[in-house]
Amino acid sequence: MEVEKIKEILKNKNEMFIFEINLISKKFIQAIRLERNKVKIIYYEEKEDNLIKVENENTLNYLKNQYELKASPIIYAKYNSDNYEYNESDDEPDEELKEWVQNYVIDVLSECEPFTNVFGKSFARHNIKKIKKVCITEKKKEITICGRYDSKEESVTLFLEPEILEEFSYMYIEDNDECRSTIVHEAIHALLKRNLNGTGLLVLIKSNDEIGRAINEGYTEWILRKVGLGEDISDLYEIFLNDVQKIELAIGEQNTMKLGKRTKYFV
After folding, report:
1. What pLDDT, on the 0 to 100 scale, is given for residue 73?
2. Rounded to whole angstroms, how far apart are CA atoms 100 and 96?
3. Of 47, 58, 101, 193, which sits 20 to 30 A from 24 (CA to CA)?
């Protein structure tokens, strides 16, 4: 059954608050709904071109044990980002730039009341050392992104056009909304890094699948909007952001912000 058809069936049930769908197998489908202000995972089985909610307790327990991670009890959905070639050896770490970026991120996040109400006023300052490297590199034609956070290297890379790279200075970041937004976006990934690999609502599992990337990017962009940045984003990220804004309407700003914490919530 095609994904678009699955989405249409679930929408017609009028019970789904859909963000993404995880096709566990040809038979089972994982979807999301809101129930009494809680985000819940629902399983469906495909039978004769229909979706039947899984009620069998043994089957449910099996599916939960196989696919429902305890580390991030919110929207487990697979999303494959665009692949691109990137040679990290081309990076040139800049210690002065790193210090400037760290101080800027601390200032921005420490003044964001919705963020500090949940994470604390000193959260950014205490966790900023998770950014161990800041690099600038030339933006190649095949690269569609502006920035990147590498959780293994704990590095933030800013991709700049060749003509900008030649005359780059810290003032350029300060005067450019896209650069400021990119730096803070990647810094949020760094600050919310999980021990389990991944950041915020993103988790990597044993099979090297990524769970929750799309909703994680939407959540990061949502925080960025609370800071007052990130007005100019791609159509894809706009969709991700819109999904999180729907969550905010359903459960409130503070509860939405809490989704990035390493605590038990919405279980």
Report:
1. 38
2. 6
3. 193
Give yes or no for a contact between 70 and 267, defined as CB atoms under 8 angstroms apart. no
| Distance separating the N- and C-terminal Cα atoms of the chain | 30
List, as one string, the DSSP characters of 96-152.
HHHHHHHHHHHHHHHT-HHHHHHH-TTHHHHHGGG--EEEEEE--TT---SEEEETT
pLDDT in tens, 70-85: 433 343 333 333 333 3
Tokens of 115: 């963020």
DSSP assignment of 161-196 = -HHHHHT--HHHHHH-HHHHHHHHHHHHHHHTB-TT
How buried is residue 204: exposed, middle or buried, by Cβ count under 10 Å (0-12/13-18/19+)?
middle
pLDDT in tens, 112-125: 999 999 999 999 99
189 vs 192: CA distance, rounded Å: 5
- Of 103, 235, 137, 231, whose CA–CA distance to 177 is shortest? 231
pLDDT of 264 > 50? The answer is no
- Which token pair is 173? 């970041």
pLDDT, residue 182, reads: 92
Long-range residue pairs from 109-116, CB within 8 A, at least 24 positions apart, any chain: 109/184, 109/187, 109/188, 109/191, 109/227, 112/223, 112/226, 112/227, 114/226, 114/253, 114/254, 114/257, 115/223, 115/226, 115/227, 115/257
Chain-centroid distance, C-alpha 192: 10
Which structure tokens are listed for 133? 């490297």
